[in-house]
Amino acid sequence: xxxxxxxxxxxxxxxxxxxxxxxxxxxxxxxxxxxxxxxxxxxxxxxxxxxxxxxxxxxxxxxxxxxxxxxxxxxxxxxxxxxxxxxxxxxxxxxxxxxxxxxxxxxxxxxxxxxxxxxxxxxxxxxxxxxxxxxxxxxxxxxxxxxxxxxxxxxxxxxxxxxxxxxxxxxxxxxxxxxxxxxxxxxxxxxxxxxxxxxxxxxxxxxxxxxxxxxxxxxxxxxxxxxxxxxxxxxxxxxxxxxxxxxxxxxxxxxxxxxxxxxxxxxxxxxxxxxxxxxxxxxxxxxxxxxxxxxxxxxxxxxxxxxxxxxxxxxxxxxxxxxxxxxxxxxxxxxxxxxxxxxxxxxxxxxxxxxxxxxxxxxxxxxxxxxxxxxxxxxxxxxxxxxxxxxxxxxxxxxxxxxxx
Length: 405
Fold this sequence. Notes:
Blueprint: E1 16-17, E2 28-33, H1 40-56, E3 66-71, H2 76-88, E4 93-96, H3 100-113, E5 117-119, E6 135-137, H4 142-160, E7 166-172, H5 178-187, E8 193-194, E9 198-200, H6 208-216, E10 221-225, H7 228-240, E11 247-250, H8 258-264, E12 272-275, H9 283-295, H10 303-322, H11 327-335, E13 363-368, E14 371-376
Parallel strand pairs: 2-3, 2-4, 4-5, 5-6, 7-8, 7-9, 7-10, 10-11, 11-12
Antiparallel strand pairs: 1-3, 12-13, 13-14
Helix pairs in contact: 1-9, 1-10, 2-3, 4-5, 7-8, 10-11
Protein backbone atom coordinates (compact mmCIF):
# COMPACT_ATOMS: atom_id res chain seq x y z
CA UNK A 1 0.00 0.00 0.00
CA UNK A 2 1.48 3.45 0.81
CA UNK A 3 4.74 2.10 2.11
CA UNK A 4 2.48 1.32 5.06
CA UNK A 5 -0.19 3.52 6.47
CA UNK A 6 2.27 4.34 9.14
CA UNK A 7 3.16 7.36 7.22
CA UNK A 8 -0.22 9.01 7.06
CA UNK A 9 1.63 12.27 7.33
CA UNK A 10 3.63 11.37 4.24
CA UNK A 11 0.48 10.91 2.20
CA UNK A 12 0.48 14.64 1.72
CA UNK A 13 3.31 16.79 0.56
CA UNK A 14 3.61 20.41 1.44
CA UNK A 15 1.35 22.85 -0.38
CA UNK A 16 3.13 24.59 -3.22
CA UNK A 17 1.91 28.16 -3.68
CA UNK A 18 2.57 29.20 -7.23
CA UNK A 19 1.61 32.86 -7.05
CA UNK A 20 1.86 35.58 -4.44
CA UNK A 21 -1.86 36.16 -4.28
CA UNK A 22 -4.29 36.24 -1.39
CA UNK A 23 -5.64 32.83 -0.41
CA UNK A 24 -9.16 33.66 -1.53
CA UNK A 25 -7.87 34.57 -4.98
CA UNK A 26 -5.87 31.41 -5.57
CA UNK A 27 -7.49 28.13 -6.55
CA UNK A 28 -6.05 25.25 -4.55
CA UNK A 29 -6.02 22.08 -6.64
CA UNK A 30 -5.87 18.76 -4.79
CA UNK A 31 -3.87 16.37 -6.99
CA UNK A 32 -4.74 12.77 -6.09
CA UNK A 33 -2.42 10.25 -7.73
CA UNK A 34 -0.65 6.99 -6.80
CA UNK A 35 2.94 8.02 -6.06
CA UNK A 36 3.94 4.84 -4.18
CA UNK A 37 3.22 1.16 -4.81
CA UNK A 38 2.82 -0.69 -8.08
CA UNK A 39 0.91 2.19 -9.74
CA UNK A 40 3.55 4.80 -8.88
CA UNK A 41 5.06 5.01 -12.37
CA UNK A 42 1.70 5.87 -13.88
CA UNK A 43 1.01 8.35 -11.11
CA UNK A 44 4.35 10.05 -11.78
CA UNK A 45 3.49 10.35 -15.48
CA UNK A 46 0.15 11.92 -14.60
CA UNK A 47 1.88 14.40 -12.32
CA UNK A 48 4.03 15.52 -15.22
CA UNK A 49 0.77 16.82 -16.69
CA UNK A 50 0.33 19.02 -13.62
CA UNK A 51 3.84 20.38 -14.03
CA UNK A 52 3.10 21.08 -17.69
CA UNK A 53 -0.01 22.99 -16.63
CA UNK A 54 2.08 25.06 -14.22
CA UNK A 55 4.31 26.09 -17.12
CA UNK A 56 1.85 26.48 -19.96
CA UNK A 57 -1.51 27.65 -18.60
CA UNK A 58 -0.32 31.10 -17.47
CA UNK A 59 0.88 31.66 -21.05
CA UNK A 60 -2.70 30.98 -22.16
CA UNK A 61 -3.98 33.75 -19.90
CA UNK A 62 -5.24 31.47 -17.13
CA UNK A 63 -4.59 32.18 -13.43
CA UNK A 64 -1.73 30.59 -11.57
CA UNK A 65 -2.75 28.11 -8.90
CA UNK A 66 -1.67 26.23 -5.80
CA UNK A 67 -1.49 22.48 -5.48
CA UNK A 68 -1.85 20.02 -2.64
CA UNK A 69 -0.34 16.65 -3.56
CA UNK A 70 -1.84 13.53 -1.99
CA UNK A 71 -0.53 10.02 -2.59
CA UNK A 72 -3.43 7.60 -3.17
CA UNK A 73 -1.20 4.52 -2.92
CA UNK A 74 -2.59 1.20 -4.10
CA UNK A 75 -6.05 0.82 -2.58
CA UNK A 76 -9.41 2.59 -2.54
CA UNK A 77 -9.07 2.99 1.22
CA UNK A 78 -5.75 4.81 0.97
CA UNK A 79 -7.20 6.98 -1.81
CA UNK A 80 -10.10 8.06 0.41
CA UNK A 81 -7.70 9.02 3.21
CA UNK A 82 -5.59 11.00 0.77
CA UNK A 83 -8.66 12.83 -0.54
CA UNK A 84 -9.87 13.64 2.97
CA UNK A 85 -6.48 15.08 3.87
CA UNK A 86 -6.33 17.15 0.68
CA UNK A 87 -9.79 18.59 1.34
CA UNK A 88 -8.91 19.29 4.96
CA UNK A 89 -5.79 21.10 3.78
CA UNK A 90 -7.91 23.48 1.72
CA UNK A 91 -8.29 21.94 -1.75
CA UNK A 92 -11.08 23.71 -3.65
CA UNK A 93 -11.13 21.17 -6.49
CA UNK A 94 -9.79 17.63 -6.81
CA UNK A 95 -8.09 16.02 -9.80
CA UNK A 96 -7.50 12.25 -10.02
CA UNK A 97 -7.14 9.42 -9.46
CA UNK A 98 -5.89 7.36 -12.48
CA UNK A 99 -7.15 4.07 -11.00
CA UNK A 100 -10.89 3.45 -11.51
CA UNK A 101 -11.39 1.67 -8.19
CA UNK A 102 -9.85 4.60 -6.33
CA UNK A 103 -11.74 7.15 -8.41
CA UNK A 104 -15.14 5.55 -7.73
CA UNK A 105 -14.79 5.91 -3.95
CA UNK A 106 -13.10 9.32 -4.04
CA UNK A 107 -15.87 10.66 -6.29
CA UNK A 108 -18.44 9.59 -3.71
CA UNK A 109 -16.47 11.37 -0.98
CA UNK A 110 -16.06 14.53 -3.07
CA UNK A 111 -19.79 14.61 -3.73
CA UNK A 112 -20.57 14.27 -0.01
CA UNK A 113 -18.05 16.99 0.86
CA UNK A 114 -19.31 19.24 -1.98
CA UNK A 115 -15.86 19.56 -3.53
CA UNK A 116 -15.80 19.60 -7.34
CA UNK A 117 -13.72 16.79 -8.83
CA UNK A 118 -12.33 16.47 -12.35
CA UNK A 119 -11.45 12.91 -13.34
CA UNK A 120 -8.25 12.90 -15.36
CA UNK A 121 -7.97 9.17 -16.11
CA UNK A 122 -10.49 6.49 -15.06
CA UNK A 123 -13.00 4.65 -17.24
CA UNK A 124 -15.44 2.96 -14.83
CA UNK A 125 -18.95 3.79 -16.13
CA UNK A 126 -20.40 4.16 -12.63
CA UNK A 127 -18.37 7.33 -11.97
CA UNK A 128 -20.80 9.45 -13.99
CA UNK A 129 -23.93 7.34 -13.46
CA UNK A 130 -24.72 8.27 -9.87
CA UNK A 131 -26.41 11.62 -10.47
CA UNK A 132 -23.50 13.50 -8.96
CA UNK A 133 -23.48 17.30 -9.15
CA UNK A 134 -19.80 17.91 -8.44
CA UNK A 135 -18.08 15.19 -10.51
CA UNK A 136 -16.84 15.78 -14.07
CA UNK A 137 -14.90 13.39 -16.29
CA UNK A 138 -12.81 14.33 -19.32
CA UNK A 139 -11.97 10.74 -20.22
CA UNK A 140 -13.96 8.12 -22.17
CA UNK A 141 -15.92 5.61 -20.13
CA UNK A 142 -15.25 1.89 -20.59
CA UNK A 143 -18.03 1.09 -23.05
CA UNK A 144 -16.97 3.97 -25.32
CA UNK A 145 -13.37 2.76 -25.17
CA UNK A 146 -14.37 -0.77 -26.19
CA UNK A 147 -16.75 0.38 -28.94
CA UNK A 148 -14.13 2.69 -30.41
CA UNK A 149 -11.48 -0.04 -30.11
CA UNK A 150 -13.61 -2.39 -32.18
CA UNK A 151 -14.34 0.33 -34.75
CA UNK A 152 -10.63 1.18 -35.06
CA UNK A 153 -9.77 -2.51 -35.41
CA UNK A 154 -12.06 -2.75 -38.43
CA UNK A 155 -10.39 0.30 -39.96
CA UNK A 156 -6.99 -1.23 -39.20
CA UNK A 157 -7.85 -4.52 -40.90
CA UNK A 158 -9.15 -2.67 -43.95
CA UNK A 159 -6.11 -0.40 -44.10
CA UNK A 160 -3.55 -3.23 -43.85
CA UNK A 161 -5.57 -5.89 -45.72
CA UNK A 162 -4.88 -8.22 -42.80
CA UNK A 163 -7.44 -9.74 -40.43
CA UNK A 164 -6.62 -12.13 -37.55
CA UNK A 165 -8.37 -15.48 -37.36
CA UNK A 166 -8.79 -15.67 -33.57
CA UNK A 167 -8.16 -13.18 -30.73
CA UNK A 168 -7.52 -13.92 -27.05
CA UNK A 169 -7.82 -11.24 -24.36
CA UNK A 170 -5.30 -11.20 -21.50
CA UNK A 171 -6.66 -8.83 -18.86
CA UNK A 172 -6.09 -7.49 -15.35
CA UNK A 173 -8.21 -9.43 -12.87
CA UNK A 174 -10.22 -6.44 -11.61
CA UNK A 175 -13.19 -7.26 -13.85
CA UNK A 176 -13.19 -3.86 -15.52
CA UNK A 177 -13.30 -3.73 -19.29
CA UNK A 178 -13.49 -7.45 -20.04
CA UNK A 179 -17.28 -7.56 -19.62
CA UNK A 180 -17.74 -4.83 -22.21
CA UNK A 181 -15.28 -6.52 -24.57
CA UNK A 182 -17.24 -9.77 -24.38
CA UNK A 183 -20.66 -8.13 -24.58
CA UNK A 184 -19.84 -5.93 -27.56
CA UNK A 185 -17.90 -8.47 -29.65
CA UNK A 186 -21.04 -9.92 -31.24
CA UNK A 187 -22.79 -6.54 -31.37
CA UNK A 188 -19.93 -5.10 -33.42
CA UNK A 189 -19.92 -8.10 -35.82
CA UNK A 190 -16.17 -8.54 -35.59
CA UNK A 191 -14.56 -10.65 -38.34
CA UNK A 192 -12.62 -12.94 -36.01
CA UNK A 193 -13.32 -15.63 -33.43
CA UNK A 194 -12.95 -14.71 -29.74
CA UNK A 195 -11.19 -17.14 -27.40
CA UNK A 196 -12.03 -17.42 -23.71
CA UNK A 197 -10.39 -14.48 -21.87
CA UNK A 198 -7.52 -15.03 -19.44
CA UNK A 199 -7.17 -12.98 -16.25
CA UNK A 200 -3.93 -12.17 -14.45
CA UNK A 201 -2.78 -10.42 -11.29
CA UNK A 202 -0.98 -7.18 -12.24
CA UNK A 203 1.20 -7.49 -9.13
CA UNK A 204 2.43 -10.97 -10.06
CA UNK A 205 6.11 -11.15 -10.95
CA UNK A 206 5.65 -14.26 -13.08
CA UNK A 207 3.07 -14.26 -15.88
CA UNK A 208 4.42 -17.31 -17.69
CA UNK A 209 1.35 -19.46 -17.01
CA UNK A 210 -1.07 -16.82 -18.25
CA UNK A 211 0.92 -16.17 -21.44
CA UNK A 212 1.24 -19.93 -22.04
CA UNK A 213 -2.54 -20.26 -21.63
CA UNK A 214 -3.08 -17.47 -24.16
CA UNK A 215 -0.78 -19.24 -26.60
CA UNK A 216 -2.58 -22.55 -26.03
CA UNK A 217 -5.90 -20.93 -26.99
CA UNK A 218 -4.86 -21.23 -30.65
CA UNK A 219 -5.35 -17.50 -31.10
CA UNK A 220 -3.15 -15.71 -33.60
CA UNK A 221 -3.71 -12.24 -32.06
CA UNK A 222 -3.36 -11.02 -28.46
CA UNK A 223 -5.43 -8.22 -26.93
CA UNK A 224 -4.18 -6.99 -23.57
CA UNK A 225 -6.01 -4.92 -20.98
CA UNK A 226 -2.93 -3.89 -19.06
CA UNK A 227 -0.86 -1.12 -17.59
CA UNK A 228 2.72 -0.27 -18.47
CA UNK A 229 4.53 -2.40 -15.88
CA UNK A 230 2.58 -5.60 -16.46
CA UNK A 231 2.51 -4.98 -20.24
CA UNK A 232 6.32 -5.09 -20.15
CA UNK A 233 6.26 -8.39 -18.26
CA UNK A 234 3.76 -9.84 -20.75
CA UNK A 235 5.94 -8.84 -23.72
CA UNK A 236 9.06 -10.29 -22.13
CA UNK A 237 7.22 -13.54 -21.54
CA UNK A 238 6.03 -13.60 -25.16
CA UNK A 239 9.65 -13.26 -26.26
CA UNK A 240 10.81 -15.91 -23.78
CA UNK A 241 8.18 -18.36 -25.06
CA UNK A 242 8.91 -17.34 -28.66
CA UNK A 243 5.27 -16.67 -29.45
CA UNK A 244 4.77 -13.79 -31.86
CA UNK A 245 1.08 -12.95 -32.25
CA UNK A 246 0.18 -11.52 -35.63
CA UNK A 247 -1.19 -8.54 -33.71
CA UNK A 248 -0.28 -7.39 -30.20
CA UNK A 249 -2.88 -4.79 -29.28
CA UNK A 250 -4.34 -3.10 -26.24
CA UNK A 251 -7.35 -1.00 -25.31
CA UNK A 252 -5.67 0.38 -22.23
CA UNK A 253 -2.48 2.14 -21.24
CA UNK A 254 0.69 0.11 -21.57
CA UNK A 255 1.85 -0.70 -25.07
CA UNK A 256 2.29 2.92 -26.18
CA UNK A 257 3.72 4.10 -22.88
CA UNK A 258 7.28 5.51 -23.04
CA UNK A 259 8.31 3.11 -20.26
CA UNK A 260 7.25 0.17 -22.46
CA UNK A 261 9.41 1.34 -25.36
CA UNK A 262 12.35 2.14 -23.08
CA UNK A 263 12.22 -1.31 -21.45
CA UNK A 264 11.80 -3.36 -24.64
CA UNK A 265 13.68 -1.40 -27.28
CA UNK A 266 13.14 -2.83 -30.77
CA UNK A 267 10.81 -5.47 -29.32
CA UNK A 268 8.32 -2.72 -28.48
CA UNK A 269 7.81 -1.94 -32.17
CA UNK A 270 4.57 -2.89 -33.98
CA UNK A 271 2.46 -3.11 -30.81
CA UNK A 272 -0.80 -1.22 -31.30
CA UNK A 273 -2.90 0.62 -28.73
CA UNK A 274 -6.46 1.87 -29.14
CA UNK A 275 -6.57 4.51 -26.46
CA UNK A 276 -7.53 7.97 -25.33
CA UNK A 277 -4.62 10.02 -26.62
CA UNK A 278 -3.88 13.47 -27.95
CA UNK A 279 -4.44 14.79 -31.45
CA UNK A 280 -0.92 15.60 -32.72
CA UNK A 281 -2.29 18.03 -35.29
CA UNK A 282 -3.91 20.44 -32.81
CA UNK A 283 -2.07 23.69 -32.15
CA UNK A 284 -2.19 23.36 -28.37
CA UNK A 285 -0.81 19.82 -28.63
CA UNK A 286 2.26 21.15 -30.41
CA UNK A 287 2.79 23.72 -27.66
CA UNK A 288 2.31 21.02 -25.03
CA UNK A 289 4.85 18.76 -26.76
CA UNK A 290 7.39 21.59 -26.76
CA UNK A 291 6.73 22.20 -23.06
CA UNK A 292 7.11 18.47 -22.38
CA UNK A 293 10.45 18.45 -24.18
CA UNK A 294 11.64 21.41 -22.11
CA UNK A 295 10.47 19.70 -18.91
CA UNK A 296 11.71 16.17 -19.65
CA UNK A 297 13.64 15.90 -22.94
CA UNK A 298 13.83 12.09 -22.79
CA UNK A 299 10.15 11.51 -21.99
CA UNK A 300 7.72 12.09 -24.87
CA UNK A 301 4.19 13.35 -24.27
CA UNK A 302 1.71 10.56 -23.57
CA UNK A 303 -1.88 9.89 -22.60
CA UNK A 304 -1.39 10.38 -18.88
CA UNK A 305 0.36 13.73 -19.19
CA UNK A 306 -2.13 15.02 -21.79
CA UNK A 307 -5.30 14.12 -19.91
CA UNK A 308 -3.98 15.36 -16.58
CA UNK A 309 -2.91 18.62 -18.22
CA UNK A 310 -6.43 19.00 -19.58
CA UNK A 311 -7.94 18.31 -16.16
CA UNK A 312 -6.02 21.29 -14.77
CA UNK A 313 -6.95 23.33 -17.85
CA UNK A 314 -10.63 22.59 -17.18
CA UNK A 315 -10.31 23.58 -13.52
CA UNK A 316 -8.58 26.86 -14.26
CA UNK A 317 -10.94 27.75 -17.11
CA UNK A 318 -13.89 27.24 -14.75
CA UNK A 319 -12.19 29.23 -11.96
CA UNK A 320 -11.55 32.13 -14.33
CA UNK A 321 -15.21 32.22 -15.34
CA UNK A 322 -16.59 31.63 -11.83
CA UNK A 323 -14.26 34.26 -10.33
CA UNK A 324 -14.58 32.35 -7.11
CA UNK A 325 -13.48 29.14 -5.41
CA UNK A 326 -16.99 28.67 -4.00
CA UNK A 327 -17.88 25.00 -4.73
CA UNK A 328 -21.32 25.72 -6.14
CA UNK A 329 -20.06 28.50 -8.38
CA UNK A 330 -17.17 26.32 -9.52
CA UNK A 331 -19.51 23.39 -10.23
CA UNK A 332 -21.82 25.66 -12.22
CA UNK A 333 -18.87 26.95 -14.24
CA UNK A 334 -17.67 23.39 -14.85
CA UNK A 335 -21.11 22.40 -16.16
CA UNK A 336 -20.89 25.33 -18.62
CA UNK A 337 -17.43 24.35 -19.88
CA UNK A 338 -16.93 24.88 -23.62
CA UNK A 339 -13.21 24.69 -24.42
CA UNK A 340 -12.25 24.54 -28.10
CA UNK A 341 -8.49 25.04 -27.73
CA UNK A 342 -7.47 21.66 -26.33
CA UNK A 343 -5.22 18.67 -27.06
CA UNK A 344 -7.40 15.53 -26.96
CA UNK A 345 -9.36 14.17 -29.94
CA UNK A 346 -12.74 15.60 -30.80
CA UNK A 347 -14.28 19.06 -31.14
CA UNK A 348 -13.36 20.22 -27.64
CA UNK A 349 -14.32 19.87 -23.99
CA UNK A 350 -17.88 20.11 -22.68
CA UNK A 351 -19.95 18.05 -20.27
CA UNK A 352 -23.39 16.47 -20.50
CA UNK A 353 -25.92 16.43 -17.67
CA UNK A 354 -24.04 13.52 -16.04
CA UNK A 355 -20.72 15.37 -16.05
CA UNK A 356 -19.24 13.29 -18.89
CA UNK A 357 -17.42 14.65 -21.92
CA UNK A 358 -19.09 12.49 -24.58
CA UNK A 359 -17.22 13.93 -27.59
CA UNK A 360 -13.92 12.19 -26.84
CA UNK A 361 -12.79 9.54 -29.29
CA UNK A 362 -9.96 7.03 -29.37
CA UNK A 363 -6.78 7.05 -31.41
CA UNK A 364 -4.86 4.06 -32.79
CA UNK A 365 -1.17 4.33 -31.89
CA UNK A 366 1.50 1.96 -33.18
CA UNK A 367 5.10 1.83 -32.01
CA UNK A 368 7.23 2.27 -35.13
CA UNK A 369 11.00 2.72 -35.14
CA UNK A 370 11.04 3.55 -31.45
CA UNK A 371 8.23 6.10 -31.52
CA UNK A 372 4.54 6.09 -30.69
CA UNK A 373 2.91 7.06 -34.00
CA UNK A 374 -0.75 7.81 -34.58
CA UNK A 375 -1.92 5.56 -37.42
CA UNK A 376 -5.72 6.04 -37.22
CA UNK A 377 -7.97 7.87 -37.80
CA UNK A 378 -6.62 9.24 -41.05
CA UNK A 379 -7.31 12.82 -39.96
CA UNK A 380 -4.73 12.50 -37.16
CA UNK A 381 -2.38 9.90 -38.68
CA UNK A 382 1.39 10.37 -38.59
CA UNK A 383 2.25 7.03 -40.24
CA UNK A 384 0.67 4.01 -41.94
CA UNK A 385 -0.03 0.93 -39.79
CA UNK A 386 2.01 -2.25 -40.27
CA UNK A 387 0.48 -5.75 -39.94
CA UNK A 388 1.14 -8.57 -39.30
CA UNK A 389 3.78 -8.08 -36.62
CA UNK A 390 7.24 -9.43 -37.55
CA UNK A 391 8.51 -12.36 -35.51
CA UNK A 392 10.65 -11.57 -32.45
CA UNK A 393 13.48 -13.66 -33.92
CA UNK A 394 13.44 -11.66 -37.16
CA UNK A 395 14.21 -8.36 -35.47
CA UNK A 396 17.72 -7.00 -35.59
CA UNK A 397 19.45 -4.02 -34.09
CA UNK A 398 18.56 -1.11 -36.34
CA UNK A 399 21.63 0.96 -37.15
CA UNK A 400 19.44 3.73 -38.53
CA UNK A 401 17.97 6.56 -36.54
CA UNK A 402 15.33 5.58 -34.00
CA UNK A 403 13.27 8.60 -33.06
CA UNK A 404 10.98 9.45 -30.17
CA UNK A 405 7.62 11.17 -30.19
